[in-house]
From TrEMBL, chain A:
<keyword id="KW-0812">Transmembrane</keyword>
<keyword id="KW-1133">Transmembrane helix</keyword>
<feature type="transmembrane region" description="Helical">
    <location>
        <begin position="153"/>
        <end position="173"/>
    </location>
</feature>
<keyword id="KW-0472">Membrane</keyword>
<feature type="transmembrane region" description="Helical">
    <location>
        <begin position="185"/>
        <end position="201"/>
    </location>
</feature>
<feature type="transmembrane region" description="Helical">
    <location>
        <begin position="59"/>
        <end position="84"/>
    </location>
</feature>
<dbReference type="InterPro" id="IPR007498">
    <property type="entry name" value="PqiA-like"/>
</dbReference>
<feature type="transmembrane region" description="Helical">
    <location>
        <begin position="104"/>
        <end position="132"/>
    </location>
</feature>
<dbReference type="Pfam" id="PF04403">
    <property type="entry name" value="PqiA"/>
</dbReference>
UniProtKB/TrEMBL annotation, chain B:
<dbReference type="InterPro" id="IPR007498">
    <property type="entry name" value="PqiA-like"/>
</dbReference>
<keyword id="KW-0472">Membrane</keyword>
<feature type="transmembrane region" description="Helical">
    <location>
        <begin position="154"/>
        <end position="175"/>
    </location>
</feature>
<dbReference type="InterPro" id="IPR051800">
    <property type="entry name" value="PqiA-PqiB_transport"/>
</dbReference>
<dbReference type="GO" id="GO:0005886">
    <property type="term" value="C:plasma membrane"/>
</dbReference>
<feature type="transmembrane region" description="Helical">
    <location>
        <begin position="60"/>
        <end position="80"/>
    </location>
</feature>
<keyword id="KW-1003">Cell membrane</keyword>
<protein>
    <submittedName>
        <fullName>Paraquat-inducible protein A</fullName>
    </submittedName>
</protein>
<dbReference type="Pfam" id="PF04403">
    <property type="entry name" value="PqiA"/>
</dbReference>
């Protein structure tokens, strides 16, 4: 548990870096280093304040690069194939988006394109860009706006929901068709695993880990 | 509780985007985004600093009500049509759950039921309750309400499940006259409901739960 700040005397000059405000209830805490596996929770509302950063910038960059490779695989391979009386039908993510557009559900096509392709892709590319420079001990060009963009995109990536959706679709189709799982679904499974790992990473740590540029 | 100081009382503001703790140099002026002259930018990331999210109550109510209105056609109208040689069958969200259940996939039926029916209902009821109780400045069950908000925020996007199922089946079941799946308007309303309720839960400021009677609005 982080200790609460009890008076205002300590708030001079740069010491504001050492403070932490709970985003869920506005309680002010003094930051303290956390040991491996430790998570600081707000005493008032129970929200997570901070957690130990087990992954270094290098490890994060490696994860992002892996996720990018898997993401490409997940997008170029068909997800699964249906068979009926010797006819076969397979689709990729983009095949699905285009079909929805053509079938009059443009809203769904746009939602799927955003949450399953554009937002995850932007997120990974921005994270890769920022981490690549952070590794060299610098802030990437466009650091501040990109960090803000990353924060905004955060909740709009839904690859893990899509994986569960694919499972439900397979089970539904299984009653009437022959179902063959294709590489795409495995790539999506791996992608979900990777996303789960870096979902717990707070990229905001880069604000503290990289030096502020001299004005 | 009084031993835990809040940023408002200390004249501090935490940047919503980058987390930097800033001194509220505008003094006691309301940095709620309603006054033009109040705007102060975060020195680190440049985002506008606000003590609370802008017009949180009004925005959350508007988005929540809009989401609820769209949730009605999402459930009443069919979300997809399965057509084969001898019959045409229109499925609603609930008939999809029933179909999974009767075909023996009880576990998946429960997951789809949770994602498509329970989660949206939970969002409407919880956010509505959080809005009413916070607007009244109620101090009832504050830690539990805070936890409920975090739950709503965390599970919200799983409701997209059914939309993706319909999209995948539409793209895959294309065997000309033998068997086809087409999306129907219900799925569009449902997708929009999910987006609107996500926006609603993002607009709600959980700090309002703790603000008590004599603050904003």
């Amino acid at each position: 548990m982080a200790t609460a700040v009890r008076n205002t005397d300590c708030l001079h000059a740069r010491s504001s870096d050492a403070l932490l405000i709970c985003e869920h209830c506005d309680t002010v805490y003094r930051r303290r280093p956390l040991a491996r596996g430790e998570v600081a929770r707000c005493v008032r509302c129970g929200a997570e304040l901070d957690r130990h950063r087990a992954l270094s910038v290098n490890a994060l960059l490696a994860l992002i690069l892996t996720a990018m490779i898997v993401f490409v695989q997940a997008n170029i391979w068909p997800i699964f194939t249906l068979g009926l009386n010797g006819q076969f039908s397979a689709t990729t993510l983009w095949g699905m988006i285009v079909t929805m557009w053509e079938q009059g559900a443009q809203v769904v096509a746009v939602l799927a394109a955003g949450t399953l392709f554009f937002f995850p892709m932007t997120k990974m590319m921005v994270m890769g860009w920022l981490l690549w420079f952070a590794r060299m001990g610098r802030r990437a060009p466009g650091f501040a706006p990109l960090m803000v963009a990353l924060h905004r995109i955060g909740p709009w990536t839904m690859s893990e929901v899509f994986v569960l959706g694919a499972l439900v679709a397979i089970v539904k189709a299984h009653t009437y068709f022959e179902v063959v799982a294709d590489p795409g679904i495995y790539a999506y499974g791996a992608l979900t695993l990777l996303i789960t790992i870096f979902a717990g990473v707070d990229m905001r740590q880069l604000w503290e880990q990289t030096p502020e540029p001299k004005p | 509780m009084s031993a835990l100081p809040r940023a408002v009382d200390l004249g501090l503001i935490g940047c919503r985007m980058c987390g930097l703790v800033c001194r509220n140099v505008a003094g006691n002026a309301k940095l709620d985004g309603d006054g033009v002259g109040d705007a102060m930018a975060c020195p680190r990331c440049g985002s506008t600093l606000r003590r609370r999210k802008t017009n949180s109550y009004a925005r959350t109510w508007a988005l929540l009500i809009a989401g609820f209105i769209l949730y009605i056609p999402a459930n009443v109208l069919p979300i997809m049509r399965t057509a084969s040689l001898n019959d045409v069958d229109d499925n609603t969200i609930i008939s999809g759950v029933v179909e999974l259940w009767t075909n023996g996939s009880v576990d998946l039926a429960i997951i789809v039921f949770l994602a498509s029916i329970v989660v949206p209902m939970l969002k409407f009821l919880s956010l509505g309750m959080l809005l009413v109780s916070s607007q009244r400045g109620s101090d009832w069950a504050r830690p539990q309400r805070a936890r409920l908000y975090r739950l709503v925020e965390f599970i919200g996007y799983w409701s997209m499940l059914d939309v993706f199922v319909v999209a995948l089946l539409t793209a895959l079941v294309r065997f000309n006259v033998l068997s086809r799946v087409e999306p129907l308007p219900g799925v569009i309303f449902f997708g929009l409901t999910v987006v609107l309720t996500m926006l609603a839960s993002m607009s709600f400021d959980p700090r309002l739960i703790w603000d008590g009677r004599n603050t904003d609005d």
